[in-house]
Amino acid sequence: MWYFAWMLGLPLAVAMGVINAVIEENLHHDD
Known about the structure:
Elements: H1 2-28
């Protein structure tokens, strides 16, 4: 069932990307 893997994997990958971007942003605003 590849579609089930995509249904779980794709949002997870997007969420990971968003979280990573937020972390990167926070690290760069290191005053």
